[in-house]
Each structure stands twice: as C-alpha cells, then as structure tokens.
Design a protein that fits this description.
This protein is α+β, with helices and mostly antiparallel strands. It has eight helices and 18 strands. Helices cover about 25% and strands about 30% of the residues. Strands 1, 2, 3, 12, 13, 14, 15, 16 and 17 form a nine-stranded mixed sheet that branches. A six-stranded antiparallel sheet has the order 5-4-9-6-7-8, with no helix packed on it. A hairpin with a 5-residue loop joins strand 1 and strand 2. Helix 1 packs across helix 4, helix 4 crosses helix 8 and helix 6 packs across helix 8.
Length: about 350
C-alpha cells in the first residue's frame, strides 16, 4: 500500500489535468477488470463482477489534487497563477512548487518578501493569491518560454512522501490519492468469487472544483448503492475550533453528514455493523466543512443510497498533508468487507428493517 500511494502522489494531476494519474490507473487495472474505459471528462470507470447476483455498488475516489494553473508570465520572468481547488492564502508564501511545462517539470517557489522588509510592510496582511507570483529562476519572459512554460500549464506542490513517527507519513495530494489507492487495493485484493453483486469503480476527475467528474459518471450508471472514498479533516490538534471528534490512528471514518451529503442511514449503519464484526476500528463522522463525490452520486438517476469511507488526515489542502498508515489499512479492509457482505439491494432501501 505504501509503494502505491508513493507512486500515485508522484504523478501530477491538478484539476482538469489528471491525465498521468488516469493513465497509470488504466494500465494497472485494465487486465484485472471485466470492463475498463475512460469517459469524455476523463473519469476512469472500472467494472468488476462478482460470482453471484446481488446489488450494483458504485465506489468513487477522485484523482485530482488541489493545485494551480499558469495565468500570465511577467516581463521579468515571474509567473502569475490561479488556484485550482480550495487553498488557504495564508500558507502559500515561500512554498515549493513544480510547474509542469511542455519540456518537463520546472521547480520553483511562491515568492515572499525578505524578513528584513517586514518593518516596511503590514505584518497582519494576508495577501490574495493574485498578488503572489512563482519564481522558477528565469531572468525574463523569453527564458520562461525557452523552459517550455506557458499559460495553462498545471502547477503542483513539490513535496515527496515522507514517513514520520512509527505509523505516519506526510506529503501532498493524499486528498485523494489515498482514496484511489484504497479502491485499487480493494479491486486487487477482494476475492470476487465470494462477492454477491457488481462493483463499478469510478476514478473521477475535477472533484475539487465542484464534483464534476462524479456528476458525469453518475448520469451514466445505475447503481443500487454508492460509496465515496476520500480523505477527511481530523480535529485532534490544539486550535480553538477543534473538537476532537476525529483523530489520526483511531480508525476509518464512517460518514454520517457533511455539507454535500446526509448519508443513507442504511448504508452507514451497515458499515458500522461490518466494521464491528470484522474488528475494524472506525470513527463516526459529522463534519460540515467538507464535501465529496458522494454529493453527486446520491443525486444520480432517481436517487441512490450513499455513504462515505473517510481516510483521516491533518493539514488538508496543504503541501504537507499527514495520514496514519493504519487508518489507510482500516479503510481498505472496510471497503473489502462491504463488498463481501452485501447481498441484496433491499439491505440499503430507505424503509429497510426497523429504522
């Protein structure tokens, strides 16, 4: 699992430019699936049939990462940029980035003033990203052009996968290459001779700019139940707004609610049940500060009972997202257990059992 996530985050894939990630996943899964294709928006759709009749389960993980795009090249060779996805302008200054130009990657840095200039500035000012610039070491615009960089090129964080402590790691693009890795491993590790039903895996595009890939995919399939696999922000650090309801290393997140979804009670209670039966640590998640592909999936066709498996993370949408590798493993085990324990779509109906 660790090798897979390292390989995935090394691939550039800012919103709308997920080509390298999709190619990697297509090549890895095309011979392991019953059907494997890429739709017009770039979503990779992978179908794997179980040996027995049962429900159709759609599982989506998004391939895009928050990043930037080259907007303008100044005469002195500095690059103006726009954001792709949600960023906090407070943490952008002095960060290392890679500009992916036509002649290959160009390392650079988001410029900042020298500390010696602070007394001539307003130290409380948070500069808007449109006032910032990226320096790739060029002396002028012509040199930038010679380096192969032009408007429209994607920009990603320049952070490698790094283990820290006994169980944790940090890097960029864990949101949501972690979810992609969980879905890949579930496809590869699950014994489909024991599965009742069909898995439709969706590796979606453009989630960070409005769930666009999942919306397109949801219009083309008719699942009986759906899941998203995505990271979620924990609340286990000392800042005033943190309430310690989600923590690293404490288990897979089973979502009840976020701003894009009120999860199907039948789905999240089923996940909680199988987690307990299989001794998989889990945490129940109610967090209105996040949305996932599930927000699009549950509104597909005439409505789909939908839930989310969440990989807990710290420092989301930054260059140093942190995860606990144990949670990563718990999430994969939970998805595999879901596949092996589903039997009939009636398990997930709105009026099922005695809820």
């Amino acid at each position: 699992m660790e090798k897979l996530i390292q390989e995935l985050i090394e691939l550039p894939g800012a919103c709308g430019q997920e080509h390298a990630v999709i190619r990697y996943l297509y090549d890895r899964l095309k011979d392991k699936a019953d059907e494997c294709y890429v739709n017009g928006l770039g979503d990779l759709i992978v179908t794997k049939k179980g040996a027995f009749d049962g429900p159709v389960l759609a599982v989506s993980a998004h391939t895009d990462e928050v990043g930037f795009i080259v907007k303008k090249i100044e005469k002195n060779g500095l690059i103006r940029f726009e954001k792709l996805g949600g960023h906090d302008d407070r943490i952008l200054l002095s960060q290392k980035v890679i500009v992916h130009g036509g002649k290959g990657p160009c390392p650079g840095v988001i410029g900042t003033i020298s500390a010696h200039m602070q007394k001539f500035d307003n130290p409380t000012l948070v500069r808007n990203h449109r006032e910032m610039y990226i320096d790739i070491g060029a002396e002028n615009a012509e040199e930038v052009k010679e380096m192969g960089v032009s408007a429209g090129d994607q920009i990603t964080w320049d952070t490698v996968f790094t283990r820290c402590g006994a169980n944790r790691a940090y890097g960029h693009a864990f949101d949501d290459r972690c979810g992609c890795a969980v879905l890949v491993k579930a496809i590869e590790n699950t014994d489909f001779s024991k599965v009742h039903g069909t898995l439709i895996g969706i590796f979606s595009t453009q989630e960070e700019v409005g769930l666009r890939g999942a919306t397109a995919a949801a219009a083309a399939i008719r699942p009986d139940v759906a899941l998203a696999v995505d990271t979620t922000a924990v609340s286990d650090t000392p800042e005033a707004m943190m309430d310690d309801t989600l923590a690293l290393g404490k288990g897979a997140g089973i979502k009840i609610m976020d701003f894009s979804l009120l999860a199907s009670r039948a789905v999240w209670t089923f996940m909680r049940q199988i987690a307990e039966e299989n001794n998989i640590p889990y945490q129940l998640e109610i967090f209105t500060g996040i949305g996932t592909d599930a927000g699009a999936l549950h509104q597909g066709n005439d409505g789909v009972p939908t839930g989310v498996i969440s990989v807990p993370s710290r420092y989301a949408h930054s260059s140093v997202e942190m995860i606990d590798m144990r949670d990563f493993d718990y999430c994969e085990k939970l998805l595999e257990a879901f596949l092996l324990n589903m039997r009939d779509k009636s398990q997930f109906s709105f009026l099922q059992s005695d809820l």
